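Hey, does this match?
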Amino acid sequence: MRNSIAVSALLLVPVAICVGAVAQTSTPQITITPMTAQKVITGAPDRFTGSVRVQSLFDPTEPSRTSGGAVTFQPGARLAWHTHPLGQILIVTNGVGWIQQWGGPVQVIRKGDVVWIPPGIKHWHGATPTTAMTHIAVQESLNGVAVNWFEQVTNEQYQLNR
């Protein structure tokens, strides 16, 4: 009897090791991206006017479709008109800026404000002419698309907001 228990235990050890290995490799792990590993780019001139710094904070990781970035606009800098297929959240972390929905009034956004932009709403956001502004932008992708770009906000459109 003692030998049969020992043999059974020896036969179960490989199964237990296999189950343990599967559990360890299939368990999702927390990921930390150090600031030094985050991509920082200058805003592309076809999408931005003025001096803009874009820091990619996170890209979508399956099954999530959410990405986020920190965007710093120097005074007078702004995005082109654009939409987001699933909407966007802005969290203003520094300064004062402007946001405008197509056909609507310019609204002032300040440090601490949280802005919800509904799906498909054509809009722009950026700094005021005299104040820099930084926000964190969070959006989801639909079929791999997080933003649809349109024409630049003209100087005339921007100056009308003073």
